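Re: weekly structure request thread

Next one in the queue (408 aa):
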Amino acid sequence: MVHESIEGVHAFQAPSFFNNSMLINELILKVTNNCNLNCKYCYVFNHGDNSYAYGASNMTDEMALHVIKKINQHCKKNGIKDFLIIFHGGEPLLMKKSFYVNFCNRITEYIPDIDVRLALQTNGTLLSDEWIKLCKQLDISIGMSFDGSEYATRDRIFRSNGESAYSQIIKGIKVLHKNNYPVSILSVIHPEENPLNIYNYLKEIGVSFVDFLYPDKTYDQVENKDQQISSWLIELFDLWFNDKSVNKPYIRSFDIVIGLILGIERGNETIGRKNNKTICIKPNGDIQAVDNLMVCGNGFTKTKYNIERNTIDEALEDPLIKKYYNSHLDNELHIKCKECIIKNICGGGHLAHRYSLKNGFNNPSVYCFEIFSLVSHIQNRIIEELPKTVTGETEIEKLTLNDYYKND
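Done, posted below.
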């Protein structure tokens, strides 16, 4: 990312991507509300939002066609050349294979001039050779939700009997390996589990890509154990940073922070200053902000927009979708964030993690200290590793916790 100058620590130009126009190039497509797992921390089923119980359980082919046509309309109107669709749920592998075949055929028919990339996020328990064959045929990449060791995965349980899904998830990983598919996972942080155990286990089972996610919580839900996340992440980073082995996994969250510190333009919904160009569409066609904002309250993400009767551009007028889109910009940040020395790296964190019943989104992230601790540690490690000519050019300086507390 290109940084602004902050008290001599960074001396780069203002970010070029700050603008007033809104466009979407990523869609989380909730093809089903059904799931065979009942993960204890799931924001869809277990954070008090019951919207999954209303409307269609599965997306129909007819509704999918509305989605495809409206994507084409939005891309043509806004000059978008590439677009990412992530099949999501619930558990998307509960859908019939014919749904995905029809969907991809219609993309070819209705969106011929745009590079549409397809991905599928699964819990892995239903993966089979047949599913892998289909995904290869349709050019759909596969991501798994998996928290690492058996202990860390204890909250992933089957809805039917309450038993652990761990062994079935491992079977899914073996299916990926058997079919030469990369093992890419999203992993919720569990600070009770030793980072060394997690890291070594992910290497042992051949994970090539992992993104560690902060548990989705607001100020009204955060627990004491969440305060252990900073030391957990720092220990994990050192394990990863010092690892010179050939089977070292790519950890996106760490790589993004390193890039931001070095002035490379990058970021996602949790870190950096980029706009969040993502929306969510439910099985019944309702257009909403991303669904982990559901942790803020029952019905929190619901809008008046539906893809059958509305365009994507119309839905971008929704206040919550706008707030999420612009959530890393100064006018959406708490005063403490605006004055923070790592503002242009942190970006205020994920919008959901700023929410409280008392102040709405006018708070720093509940993980403010954890983010600052990690960023400062990574920055200090980089200074130790890079030649002085490099660090001198970017004017990177060491950070301490005094830099964090001076804005309190």
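The two ends are 26 Å apart (CA to CA). The first helix runs from residue 61 to 78.
Next request, please.
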